[in-house]
Structure to design on (730 residues):
């Protein structure tokens, strides 16, 4: 088993929390992993990405080679496209549909969707709306993780445990909220 | 077996704690910051560490940090000093001379290099410094090695009597993997060397002696390298006749492995400890006609093998274009260097726009630049010299407010030089932490020569860019400037808020017109640290 995941978004959107949950779940599953992330300057409203590699054999490179990512999980639709060269031919994109426009030359929404039309495997979801409807507006990133969960190669129950362990410090309410968000994203109740 | 998910930085921090660390002294700098932060956090949360008086502190700059670490080592205790690559330039005076004296308690110096310049001004490779100072260097290829090198590195440092330089890169610092930790050792007792004699007194006559000792020590350092478990020669089961041998340093070894998932087809020498292990290198060279060197950073090993004239051994790498000369290594770059094809089924669509980092909404630096830009418009030849920090982002749209960013403190000194040359108005914009790191001496120079400069110390009461570490003189910037000799009539403070916009413009204009040293301190706490404090307070309620 081997899953290579690119996580993408804009600094501050919460991609590292997604990475932390998957990482925790992978560790519990006895899997090897490496996860490379971005700190420092790029955090401030700039594009951010994380390479997450999970395998039942030791992982060599901290970075994913071109053309070999199984999924791109993105909290922003244009940001997902930035990492397309990493995606393998039959790989999946799971992205938030809502744009984050903090630059003057942000492309037209329709142009972005045209690019998605060209891709064979994608899930485009308004995770912010779903999170709001659940009464968990801060858990949109976990909704997205839920949507991507079938492609991670990690059992859903392990991801749930990952949520419990990562958000446990913040109290039972936060854990429940995020479990709800994860299930909603996965289309489960 | 205790396996935990650690960033490279965290693995180093935990290893130092487990090896019986007594003090870490650092200055924040991406990608090294998390090491010291981790230890600080551990001291605050782990009862046995809190009571063990483990010192974990931010210092004014890397030089004061490293010298403090030397003092702790002098007393016999184990110590750590962490910095980003350019930080070692600041600490270089101490660094080069600690290699002359040697140490007592184990000392590890961490340099976190930043190839590809993710958040730095250059991509200098500090293995060069290790070579320059003639001390052993570790370069881990994974997080577990980083842990082990630090855990055991203290023993090595004490055995050899010299500091060890641990060189990591951004990728190692900020990548997470499972790490097995070991039992925590007790701290060393205070144990000053009774026979230290002149060891720490680098007067010329003694320094000459110390240098001879350092030269003599090289044999031991090489021996340590040749016997190191981190250096290893891999020979394929069917040895090829001649052909290409590969040297892979640090992280490059992983990228090589990535491209040979079923085992290497070439003889491979993995190097993670320096000086370069001569014995294994000779074995590799004897078995191969050509050598490919894979290293992240400068062609340090490649240059040593190739020699200046490049006659003799055929060496490929960054110098002959087999690998790109600049930038971080990647599995793709290594793949190309191996002559294998890199395939991407999809390209980046043209519509994808760059998204550079920006100052946070509501940040005080924004208010400073908005006012400054308004006033500057009135002066055709104005130049604004700036510095290292969040406010460097003032170079980007919409502000485009600054003309320089060189090194810590260079804003003030450049402004003075430019003013001497006739630039008017000549301004500096520097943050509070950068000011206390390396700006104060420049300000003294300005005062001593009554330079016609306006210095804006944009004070957000933290070290913002690295994530909000303590700033050395929070609440005391005004007093420091006054003490250095800035005239009180031209030392102004203001809160950078929209409501003070006109007032700030007026201040800037007035102080530009004053023919001498003026300092304006716009002071408002970083909105990120402010928000974090509010969250912590709420939690405690």
């Amino acid at each position: 088993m081997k899953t290579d995941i690119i996580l993408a978004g804009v600094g501050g959107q919460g991609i590292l929390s997604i990475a932390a949950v998957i990482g925790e779940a992978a560790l519990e599953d006895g899997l090897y992993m490496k996860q490379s992330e971005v700190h420092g300057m790029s955090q401030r409203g700039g594009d951010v990405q994380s390479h997450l590699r999970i395998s039942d054999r030791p992982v060599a490179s901290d970075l994913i080679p071109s053309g070999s990512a199984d999924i791109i999980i993105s909290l922003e639709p244009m940001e997902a496209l930035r990492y397309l060269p990493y995606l393998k031919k039959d790989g999946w994109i799971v992205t938030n549909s809502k744009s984050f426009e903090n630059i003057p030359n942000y492309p037209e929404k329709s142009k972005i969707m045209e690019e998605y039309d060209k891709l064979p495997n994608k899930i485009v979801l308004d995770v912010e709306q779903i999170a709001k409807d659940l009464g968990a507006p801060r858990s949109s990133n976990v909704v997205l993780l839920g949507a991507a969960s079938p492609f991670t190669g990690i059992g859903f129950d392990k991801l749930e445990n990952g949520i419990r362990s990562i958000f446990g410090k913040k109290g039972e309410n936060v854990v429940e909220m995020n479990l709800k968000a994860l299930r909603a994203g996965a289309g489960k109740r | 077996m205790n396996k935990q998910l650690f960033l490279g930085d965290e693995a180093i921090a935990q290893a130092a704690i487990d090896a019986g660390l007594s003090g870490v002294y650092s200055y924040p700098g991406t990608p090294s910051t998390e090491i010291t932060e981790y230890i600080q956090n551990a001291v605050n949360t782990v009862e046995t560490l809190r009571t063990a008086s483990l010192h974990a502190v931010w210092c004014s700059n890397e030089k004061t940090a490293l010298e403090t670490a030397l003092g702790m080592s002098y007393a016999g205790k184990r110590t750590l000093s962490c910095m980003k690559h350019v930080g070692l330039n600041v600490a270089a005076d101490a660094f080069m001379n600690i290699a002359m004296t040697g140490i007592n308690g184990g000392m590890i110096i961490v340099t976190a290099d930043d190839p590809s310049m993710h958040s730095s001004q250059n991509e200098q490779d500090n293995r060069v410094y290790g070579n320059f100072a003639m001390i052993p260097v570790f370069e881990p290829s994974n997080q577990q090695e980083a842990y082990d090198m630090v855990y055991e590195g203290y023993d090595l440092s004490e055995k050899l009597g010299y500091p060890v330089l641990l060189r990591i890169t951004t990728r190692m610092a900020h990548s997470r993997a499972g790490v097995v930790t070991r039992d925590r050792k007790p701290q060393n007792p205070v144990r000053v060397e009774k026979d230290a004699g002149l060891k720490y007194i680098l007067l010329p006559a003694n320094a000459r002696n110390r240098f001879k000792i350092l030269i003599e020590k090289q044999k031991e350092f090489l021996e340590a390298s040749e016997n190191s478990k981190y250096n290893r020669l891999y020979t394929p089961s069917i040895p090829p006749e001649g052909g290409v041998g590969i040297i892979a340093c640090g992280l490059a070894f992983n990228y090589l492995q990535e491209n040979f998932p079923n085992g290497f087809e070439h003889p491979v020498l993995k190097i993670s400890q320096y000086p370069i292990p001569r014995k294994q290198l000779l074995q590799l060279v004897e078995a191969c006609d050509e050598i490919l060197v894979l290293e992240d950073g400068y062609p340090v090993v490649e240059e040593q093998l190739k020699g200046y004239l490049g006659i003799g051994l055929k060496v490929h790498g960054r110098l002959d274009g087999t690998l790109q000369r600049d930038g971080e290594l990647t599995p793709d770059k290594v793949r190309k260097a191996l002559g294998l094809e890199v395939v991407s089924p999809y390209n980046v669509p043209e519509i994808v726009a760059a998204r550079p980092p920006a100052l946070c909404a509501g940040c005080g630096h924004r208010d400073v630049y908005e006012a400054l830009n308004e006033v500057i418009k009135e002066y055709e030849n104005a130049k604004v010299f700036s510095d290292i920090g969040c406010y460097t982002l003032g170079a980007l749209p919409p502000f485009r407010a600054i003309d320089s960013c060189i090194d810590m403190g260079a804003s003030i000194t450049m402004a003075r030089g430019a003013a001497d040359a006739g630039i008017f108005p000549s301004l500096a914009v520097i943050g509070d932490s950068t000011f206390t790191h390396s700006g104060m001496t420049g300000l003294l120079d300005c005062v001593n020569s009554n330079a016609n400069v306006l210095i804006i110390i944009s004070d957000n009461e933290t070290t913002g860019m690295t994530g909000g570490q303590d700033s050395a003189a929070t609440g005391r910037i005004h007093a420091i400037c006054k003490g250095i000799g800035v005239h009180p009539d031209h030392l102004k403070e203001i809160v950078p808020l929209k409501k003070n916009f006109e007032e700030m413009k007026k201040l800037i204009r007035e102080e530009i017109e004053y023919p001498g040293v003026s300092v304006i301190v716009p002071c408002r706490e970083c909105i990120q640290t402010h928000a974090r404090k509010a969250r912590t307070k709420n939690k405690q309620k």
Chain A touches chain B through 50 residues (CB under 8 Å).
